[in-house]
Amino acid sequence: MTTDWSLLDSFILEKVRETKLPSLAIGVVDKNGEFIYSRVIGFRDVERGLPATLNTNYGIGSVTKSFTALCVVKLSFEGLIDLEDSVVKYIPEFNVKPFGRDIRVKDLLTHTTGLPALGYAEAFIRSVLELDTAWLPISKPEDIILFMNNSSEWAVSKPGEKFYYLNEGYVLLGYIVSKVTGMSYEDYVRKTILKPLNMNKTYFSEEDFRKDFDTAVPYLIDKNGNLVKTKFPFGVTADGGLISNVNDMSKYLTMLINRGVFNNSIVLSEEVVKTVEEKRVDYPYKLFGDESYGYGWMITEKFYDRKLVSHSGSILVHTAYAGYLPRDGYGVVVLANSSGYPLSIIGLYALSIALGHNPEKELKPVFYDRMMSKLVGIYETYKGTFHLSIERNGDFLTLVYRDKYTESKTTLVPVEIKEDYCEFYTLSNTRRIPVEFYIEKERIIMIYERYKFVKKR
Fold first, then answer.
1. How far is CA 226 from the centre of its chain?
2. pLDDT in tens, 44-84
3. Where do the DSSP E strands lie in 201-329?
4. In angstroms, rounded to a whole number, what is the distance separating the alpha carbons of residues 311 and 324?
5. Per-domain residue ranges for the chain?
6. In CATH, what class is 369-455?
7. To the nearest whole percent, how much of the chain has pLDDT over 70?
8. pLDDT above 90: residue 138
9. Does residue 402 have a pLDDT over 70?
10. Are 295 and 69 in contact (CB under 8 A)?
11. What is the CATH code of the structural domain delimited by 6-362?
12. Within 10 Å of residue 427's Cβ, how many Cβ atoms?
């Protein structure tokens, strides 16, 4: 049966236009490494009118963590790293002990150090892009160790207990890789993953980026929706420093789908691949309800009752998403040269279609988005005696009253979203006030306090 990808084509164009992304590149591969869908839209360089391609390089941000985790786990199977060991065994100068407890290597892998985000990457990237004055000159792992020196007092839980995303932890993992292998982290990734997969256009360094004639110019989108050409934040490494493209990343996903095998050669053992995919700690930001974090990957088993392994990445000026379905043998990578519509949703949309589902009806964030937008408009009471407007504010709606002299805004929090009925609530002097929408074929009715409103436009 031929898959109809026209829904995805329309969705991508809509979201690229809506959020002003300069370019977006996407590829969906099957277990044979063949593209069953690919699309590139927009410009890698807007000013010069240069179109992006499947070979255009983008920073993949935190998708890099999956590479780092694979390297660490591979070394653990080879006996060079014990995931149960304290980090101090490999980095003696590391003296961070949340609540007096040692942080283990596996705590770094699962973001369960007990430390909430310390913000090194945020400060570094924003200062390089001249968005903030919080300059943090981190140029090597030793600088991270120095930066974390007093962070024990910042801990909110003991190691191994709770998930708190920590970029600094993956920098330390890269440092451990270099310590036990005797080569730089970057060289080990090249030797272990990039070279065996023929990912010949994937790299870490500014030098390689400058020599590459097909790279995406980094852009920011300002508050007025204008594109601002800016810099690439070189210097981030094991936590988010890889630069790649759809063609190369499709090889990576193909290898993972095939349990470590690529072109009939074993790149990684099946045990290594399965180990990084195991659920390790509850992931608190739920979409499907069962999300967990493994080693360098987020995992759910409720994507149409299938296991989905995925990760997003962002360095503000470039964004990325990679995900794959081990059982069905599909993988997707999405890359863009700015921050806009979440690439994870576009990736989920693509995988939904690959499985034969309709994401417009069955993918929760897309369905919610459509319904929320449908409710936006001007509402009036009986014979137009009173008017209110409903406006969109991200994942919330805002009820707005305006007259000649005043304006009031009330946030509406969603409770239930269905095709024919939507319930929200707001607070008034701590009292919870329901706001209900009844969606009929020809009209939308809103019930708010003592009033009935009908949408007019």
1. 23
2. 999 999 999 999 999 999 999 999 999 999 999 999 999 99
3. 219-221, 227-229, 243-244, 261-262, 265-266, 281-282, 292-293, 298-303, 306-314, 319-325
4. 10
5. 6-362, 369-455
6. mainly beta
7. 100
8. no
9. yes
10. yes
11. 3.40.710.10
12. 11
